[in-house]
Amino acid sequence: MLSGILISVAFLVACGLALAGLLLLAERRILNFGPCTIDINNGKKVLQVDGGNNLLAALAENDIFIPSACGGRGTCAYCKLKVLDGGGTAGPIETPYLTQEEIKDKVRLSCQVRLRNDVRIRIPNHLFDIKRFRGRVEHKRSLTHDTVELRIALEEPSQISFQAGQYIQLESEPYRGREAVMRAYSISSPPSQNNAVETVIRLVPDGICTTWVFEVLKENDPVTFSGPYGEFHLSDPDRPCLFVAGGSGMAPIWSMLRDMRENNNRRPVSYFFGALTQADLFYVDDLRQLERDTDWFRFIPALSNEPPESDWEGERGLITDVITRHRPETAGDEAYLCGSPGMIDAAVRVLTAGGMPENQVFYDKFA
Ligand SMILES: Cc1cc2nc3c(=O)[nH]c(=O)nc-3n(C[C@H](O)[C@H](O)[C@H](O)COP(=O)(O)OP(=O)(O)OC[C@H]3O[C@@H](n4cnc5c(N)ncnc54)[C@H](O)[C@@H]3O)c2cc1C
């Protein structure tokens, strides 16, 4: 009797598996998920990949890393590239992020291009230099109640070359039923420290990657990331700079400042840093030390939610009001802004109202 039941169960399981296999094969055939060719920059590199994947992921599997801050969800629009042939037309997730000009130019969000046939694409040549790195957590140091400094010592490759202001894409591991994701984090260490990268990571409630960093990742654990990415770095060598950051937006600015100090910078820099309360400030001692050590740097932290009766003697109020008070005229300055999109949009309005041309404003939105 028992063996009869076991045979029936085994038979049903086998039928189920066979049916699932047939469905998978049928789906691949219907959706034409055969092997595909990706021709990059007129044959500069030609890849053979399995169809079915999205273009962003297929390229990453072949060590071509396109910038992407949202990990392929179609919400950051960083992964734009030209699909000259074979990509079909832009879908409804992409079109809000594409101008008419870009659509005409065959620009697509690579995370939204499903590979069904051969494609011909064009990417900027410098993207061939982005690598995937393996490293180990050298330290995870608490900076405030919701922010940590994560330093990753590099193992393979053992050195990284980047410009102050650029970012990496950290790859989290699956944990507690949550999937592996990739998220952007600006490098806070200076380029001279090329055997490690330091980042400043702020916990996002219920965020997949930040919860993994805060609750799962431990010192000495292995980590993987790709980089360096981004166009956010110092340009004009002489013009006075205004740096504006909030929260973890400190990271790329801290890298730039350390780089400027090491290279004997002479550009005047005023750094406006916005936080809610004194409990949200960090690196203040280092920044005050930089002020004492140099004649080109001023640090202006501003608190928007500090209790009125507290001992805080610095600036109070929104960072935008503080900028206007200190710098009503900004035409001769260049600005570098980093932090939440809301803070950046408001700061850009204030700076341009003060006379700064838009082409002298550079920013990285932590969207
Ligand atoms: C260029 C760049 C540089 C950056 N640098 C830094 C840095 O130096 N330091 C730093 O801390 N951050 C930085 N960020 C932000 C960082 O990349 C992450 O976005 C952030 O850490 C949150 O990631 P997460 O995986 O924890 O959260 P996510 O899982 O992405 O979630 C973020 C929030 O969205 C909500 N959410 C997620 N998915 C959905 C959904 N489908 N529907 C509704 N809500 C949803 C979550 O509940 C959560 O509140 C940077 C971003 C960019 C673009």
Protein model, in words:
- With 367 residues, this protein is of the alpha/beta class.
- The protein folds into three domains: 35-127, Beta-grasp domain (Ubiquitin-like (UB roll), Roll), CATH 3.10.20.30; 131-229, Translation factors (Elongation Factor Tu (Ef-tu), domain 3); 241-365, Nucleotide-binding domain of ferredoxin-NADP reductase (FNR) module (Rossmann fold, 3-Layer(aba) Sandwich).
- The protein is 26% helix and 29% strand.
- The protein has eight helices and 17 strands.
- The protein has helices at residues 2-30, 55-61, 100-104, 208-216, 250-262, 284-293, 319-326, 341-353; strands spanning 35-40, 45-50, 80-85, 107-109, 119-122, 131-144, 147-156, 167-171, 182-186, 196-202, 222-229, 241-246, 269-275, 297-303, 315-316, 334-339, 361-365.
- The strands form three sheets. A six-stranded antiparallel beta sheet has the order 9-8-11-6-7-10. Strands 15-14-13-12-16-17 form a six-stranded parallel beta sheet, with helices on both faces.
- A hairpin with a 2-residue loop joins β6 (131-144) and β7 (147-156).
- α7 packs parallel to α8.
- The protein binds flavin-adenine dinucleotide.
- Flavin-adenine dinucleotide binds at residues 69, 76, 167, 181, 183-186, 199-202, 204-210, 248, 251, 364, 366-367.
